[in-house]
Amino acid sequence: MTSILTAVRPASARAQALLDAPQDARMLIGGDWVGASDGATLPSIDPATGAVIGHIPDATPHDIDRAVRAARAAFDSWSQTPPAERAAILWRIADLIDANIDELAEMETLDQGKPLYVGRWAEIPGAAGQFRFFAGQATAIEGRTITPSITYQPAGKQVHAWTLREPVGVVAAIVPWNSPLVLTAMKLAPALAAGCTLVLKPAEDTSLTALRLAELMVEAGLPAGVLNVVTGRGARSGAALAAHHGVDKVAFTGSTATGRAILDASKGNLKRVTLELGGKSPVIVLPDADLDLAIPGAANAIFFNGGQVCVAGSRAFVHASIYDRVIEGLSSYADGLQLGHGLNPATQMGPLVSARQAERVADFVAGARTAGASVMTGGERSGDAGTFIRPTVIADVSPDMDVVREEIFGPVLVVQRYDDLDQVVAAANDSVYGLAASVWTESLSSAHRLSRRIQAGTVWINCHLMYDASLPIGGVKQSGYGRDSGVAALDNYLEWKTVCAVL
Ligand code: NAD
Question: Which pTM value belongs to this model?
Fold first, then answer.
């Protein structure tokens, strides 16, 4: 199947306007919608066609400074707003996301390339779910009482001690382009629930839904300055934000290389930093797996959203006894995927986000061929326009190849054969990353044992990519530290204060 499906007309007026003529977007600073102070803009591109659909401001360090000051000015009032009031605003934001779900999904498809169903049924509802979950958490923040064993307390007195949870302050949230709205919600919802104020910097390739979300958040009653959104290049606006001394904490999702740059930039005022970084997640298929479930499951783990997923299952380990059947099943699944514009309902896989990303992925596949690997299917660019890469399955790899070790962030699966559990555990853990893994087996015992031995922040059993606002997600090793989602995420945005009294 080589045809690339074209777009069908979007239903929402905003998405139609983007298709009809490029729209100029503005950033939100201190309640005002503004351009960059030097007038600079960046194009927003529909990666399926290469068409310019809009322009976003390229924020200057001066704009970043204004945004941080606005967040600081709003902090005292927002942090002291009763939790139930904060919760009510978060809940309204979720309702407004639901009310605008088709429009948000269509805008995300046009800006990022993803098939409409990914945004419409997974990511945009997921974003609303984040605001609802953390609306509940806003009213459940609590400290502890402690009975200390201090030996030098004054005779006849008692020491009474307790802890308070307090918001960390001004948060810089910096997010990537692969799942823009839901990853943004994963930062904003817990930070606002905790009482923090924010400066958000979406990725330069995909800022449109973050700006639309900001409009909805204003409509929901979020006071001016509590959320500021600055758009622009990572090297200019992102770097200025990460280094700004008025920022107390950086909540970052993105590549491991940028995570390192952010850590360096945070040193000036010793910002708190949490990092959700890259991955090279193993998918382990045991000989007793239900292959009717495991083969499409493993294929979806890598080809969903074109492999542009931090937890994508990019390394499959298949037991020797079922290897031939599984590799044939994976290749045939890949061959059957329909590529096209995300606005066509028949599209199963869209383009990659940018020409740069498509070239990077193609280079990895070419490197694997040169190194002697077998490309079972895919690997080539597809279509005359856009940034489409055919879903790719690679076999006959060795552990030292780049295609096995590096995060590709595209629809490329490497498949390796193993003979026993100790061997597959060692091979799966032989990575600098530790973000996620999945294990496919009918044996409860093997599933439990492997879930403990695999070095990863999440282990899925007989599934992959199961996300929920209640489930913590994040990495070990060079996949970062800190957790998004779940009660654990609130800790990113709260300090402990100890109060100790002699009574
Ligand atoms: P990236 O690191 O290039 O960019 C992420 C964000 O950082 C963007 O907003 C960018 O503008 C900004 N940025 C770039 N340079 C900066 C700098 N020097 N200082 C401050 N900000 C800067 O990542 P990407 O290419 O947009 O996204 C892909 C990466 O994100 C992959 O590695 C993927 O695994 C990772 N990711 C991780 C998770 C997770 O939860 N662990 C989720 C999604 C994506």
Answer: 0.96
